Amino acid sequence: MTAAERFVVLGLAHARSTWFPDLGRWATSGAVPAQFVKCLSAEEVRVRLASGRSFSALVADAGLPAVDRDLLGAARAAGCAPLVVDDGRVTRDWVALGAAGVLHPGFGRDDLIGVLHAYARPIARTEARTDHLASSVAPPPAWRGPVAVLTGPGGTGVSTAAIALAQALGDDAGNAGLVCLADLRLHAEQAVLHDAGDVLPSVQELVEAHRAGQPSPEQVRAQTFAVEERNYHLLLGLRSARFWSTLRRRAFEAAFGSLQRAYRAVVCDVDPDLEGEEEGGSIDVEERNVMARTAVRRADVVFVVGLPSMKGVHALVRVLADVVAFGVEPGRIVPVVNCAPRSPRTRASLTAAVAELVAPAVARVGTASGTGMAGPVFLPERKVDDDLHDGARLPALLGAPLAGAFRAVLDRAAPPADIGIERVRPGTLGRWADPGAEVANG
Fold this sequence. Notes:
Helix content is 40%, strand content 15%. By secondary structure, the chain is of the alpha/beta class.
């Protein structure tokens, strides 16, 4: 560190924290080569991190409820090393939550300097902004269950199709019933469709558990309800649409990752609204749509459900175009026509219409993989109100086509098996053809 550099440290602590004034005195007296910026709240920390100014580290008191996964993640995203002062009263794995280092409340000047040199980056006095924090990130878990997302315009039977797919996947012997149906809509209705006797635990409790912790797969499954008749588990949705504001983005992403680790397949019922700050200029809209945006971004297959009428096809194509514009590869998107007509000619006409109308949206983004969008899956019209009311199984004709399309897309997207290096015996690979001989033989 040169004479023109120093550490710029944000501080967030309880008013009675003993280390907070000590850090200020060390910085003022020059005992620590740092500029100390005291913050009164987590919101002030977020504002300063988003201001464009460079910060080396955030030193935060572990006893504050606002110090959670999202605040630590926001510091890392701004190139600021998050350091937590932990007095041991709250048992949490702070490094797993995103902290770069942990300090004891009685830390001294040398301890602080050592941690800053180990994890933080000194700031030049003429520097306007830092790069992102260059620190080691834990590798992703080896196992993540595949994700199927079902979305579409309202009134098209998306939620019923999600139930049918979860039932079909739960019946698969390879899944052993470890399938989760997650209700990630703002106006959650799976609780009504399953006649749930309670409204919690739900996605709110699951996300809250990930704000300051990392539950085990068993604890994640304990937040769901077993639907034994259909061989899957149900994660209830928001108790009210206005509670979207309680879902922090990084905590929700961590909760979604835990669902993938706890189950062999995750089926998500989501809204078709994927608008974010980049599209509409509003961060509030992006935060409101965090469930749908996260699920679609993590999805292996996205099913977009529509109806066979003129308006239904128009709405289906609109949502398909939105999903493509969001960044999902067309090869991972499967259109679904619910209550489809039986006539092969009419079905062929619907297939051609969808392909023609969605072609401009696909052409705008291009297909790096070279795989175009699959043809629609047609679901026959079936009366399922009595089955839903009684908690009985849905007709297999509804779930089987969806499960087949899901497996087909997974098989196409699966990476090639690692066959290793093998010795090649001479003569087993054939020989190069002689172009001259081919021309001569005409």
